[in-house]
Amino acid sequence: MSTPFVPAVSQLGSAGLCLPLLCCAVPGCAMPQHPPSCFGMWLLLVLLQAAVLAAQLCEAPGEAGAAAVQALSRRLLGLASDPARDPDPSVYLALRLAADHHLAAEQRYLARLQDTFQRRYNQTLQEAVQSHGHPSRDATASKSSRGEEWPETGRLALYLLGLRATCPSPDPGSQRSLVTWLKYHLEEDWAGSRRHGHPLTSYYQYGLGILALCAHRKRVREEVIRRLLEAEHHHKFRHAGGSAVDTEAVAVLAFTCLERERLVRSRLAAELRAARRRVRRRMVEEQHPNGFFGNAYSTPWAMQVFIASNMCQLKTVYGQAMAALLKNLDAFTITATMAQVLPVLHGRSYLDIASMRCQEESDTLTPISPVPLPELLGTMMVRLVVECPLPQCPQHRLYDQLVPAPAGASLLDVLRAAAAQEPHNFTFDTQETPQGPFLIRVLGLEAQQRKRSYWQLLTDSGTSLQMGVAEYRPQDGDSIILRLSEW
Ligand code: B12
Question: For the CA atoms of the chain, what is the radius of gyration?
Fold first, then answer.
C-alpha cells in the first residue's frame, strides 16, 4: 500500500537523495558549495522520504494485510455515504488519513459536518456573550437527557482536527471563531477540574481539545497543559470499569504535538517528553500476550503513540499489536470503532493531520455496503440482573429475571424483550451517540453525568463488556448485569 505522495518522491529516485549525502561524506565536498536553496530542497526531500518510510513501516504489512485494510476502508466509506447516519468528525478523519480516497464522497461528508457544526457555532463567542450576558450554552454545549449542559470539548476538537485535514485547507478566517469556542470549552473543563478534581467532560476530551488547538498551532495556557500532565503523573485516567490506555494515548499525542510544534517553553517540553516516555514504557510493560494494549478498541490509540514517536520499528511491540488487530478486524463493526482503527492500519496518527499534503491523492476508493448478519434460528434464554450498589438506591438487587429472545439477538433486543414481557416491570432508555445507543436509564434510575454515574454492562463473573448494548450479542444461558456505577 503506498502513501499518496510516494510517487513524487520516488520519481526523484534514491540517487537524488544519495548524491548530497555522498557529497557530505567526501572530504572537501562540503554542503556550502551548494546554494542554500539546493540545501533546502535536499532537506525537504530527506524529510519527505523519511515521512514516506515512516508511514510504510507503520502500516499493516503484506498483501493480505493491505487487502483487509482496503476492505475495511471501503466499508467505512459505504457507511459514511448513508445520509440517514449523523455525520461524525472521527469518520471524516479516518477517510482523510487513509492511503486511498473517494474525494467527492469526502467532500459531501465534509459539507454535512460543516452544516451540523456551523449551525451550532454560528455565533462568535463575543456575540453570544453580548446577547445573553454569558455564552449561550444552548447552541454550543451538549445536553444530557435531563437538560444538564456540558462543554463540547471532544466533538468540537475532532471537528477542528477534521478541518485541519481538509484539502485544500479552508479559509483560516472561517475557523477562527471555532477555535475560540474550543478554547472556551477547554477553559470550562479546566475550571471544572479545579473545582471537582476532574474535567467536566473527561480527560480524554480534554486531551483531544489540547491536541486540536495544537494542530491549529494555537497556544494553550501552561496551567491548562499542566493539569493533563499532573493527571497522567498521578494515574487519574483509569476509571472504574475502563482502562486508561485510550486516554493516556490521547494525552501523549497532545504532548507530542506541543513539543513538536514548539508551542511550550523548554522546561515544560522536557516534562512532556518525560511523560511520553513514561506512558510508552508503561504500555510496553502492560502489553497483553495477545498483542493488545488494553483491549482491541484501545490498541489503535496506543499504536498512534508509537507512530507519533517514530517507534513502529519496535517490531515485537508494534508488530504484535498490528498482528492482533489484523486477526480481530471483525471486532470493528460500527462506524466509530472502524474510524478509530483505520488510521493506524494505514500507518498514520492524528499528528499527521498537521502535515497533510494535498497533491496526488489517489482517488480510487469505492464504497461497499454493510453485509447483514446471518439470521440464527431458534431462541435463547438470558438472565438479566439489575444492580444498584450506590447509597441512593432503595436496595442492591432491583431485578433478576430470565428473558427469552431470538438466538443471535443483541443485548438491546434482550432489553426490549424484557420490557415487553409480563408483568411489564422492566423499563430502560438509551441516548443516541456516535458510538451507538448509550444506556442512560434503567427501572426509572437515570445515570447522571454530574455525579459521574453510568449504567455499566457486566457479565456475571464481573467482567465489564467491551461493547455497547446494540453491538453485544449474548449467548444462550448467559447472565448480564446492568449496574449503576461511578466512574
Ligand atoms: C470516557 C468514556 C466513557 C465514559 C463516558 C462518560 C463521559 N461523560 O465522558 C463512561 C465511563 C460512562 C463510559 C461508559 C462505557 N463505555 Co466508554 N469510553 C470512554 C472513552 C474513554 C472516551 C469517550 C469520549 O469521550 N469520546 C470523545 C467524544 C467527543 O466522542 P462521543 O462519541 O461523543 O463520546 C460520548 C459517547 O461515546 C459516550 N460513550 C462512552 N463510552 C461509550 C460506550 C458505548 C458503547 C456507547 C454507545 C457510548 C459511549 O460517552 C461519550 C461522552 O459523552 C472511550 C474511548 C474511545 N476510544 O473512544 C471509551 C469507549 C467508547 N467505551 C467503551 C465501552 C465498552 C463502554 C461501556 C459499554 C463499558 C461497560 N461495559 O459498561 C460503557 C457504556 C455502557 C452504557 N451505559 O451504554 C468502548 C467502546 C467499544 C465499542 N465496541 O464501541 C471504548 C472505545 C473504550 C474501549 N477501549 O473499550 N465510557
Answer: 24
- Matching residue, cell 508511514: 55
Report pLDDT for 13. Answer: 31
Distances (CA, A) of 93 to 3, 122, 123, 161: 16, 22, 25, 7
> What's the 206 CA to ligand 1 centre distance in angstroms?
15
Cite the beta strand spans of 89-226 per DSSP E: 142-143, 149-150
How far does the centroid of ligand 1 lie from the alpha carbon of residue 436, in Å?
A: 10
**CA nearest 350: which of 479, 147, 204?**
204
Q: Tell me, what's the pLDDT at 379?
A: 96
Domains along the chain with CATH numbers: 59-355 (1.50.10.20), 379-486 (2.170.130.30)
pLDDT at position 168: 87
Which residue from 150, 230, 159 is spatially nearest to 184, judged by alpha carbons? 150
Q: How far apart are CA 298 and CA 249, in angstroms?
A: 9
- Measured from the CB, is residue 433 less than 6 Å from ligand 1? yes
Q: Summarize pLDDT for 419-437 with one digit per residue, the tens.
A: 999 999 999 999 999 999 9
337 lines ligand 1 (CB under 6 A): yes
pLDDT of residue 31: 39
Determine the Cα–Cα distance for residues 305 and 328; give it in Å rounded to an integer.
20
Q: What angle do CA 185, 212, 227 make, to 5 degrees?
A: 60
Give the least confident one: 114-123, 154-163, 343-352, 396-405: 114-123
Instruction: State whether residue 302 is helix, strand or coil.
Output: helix
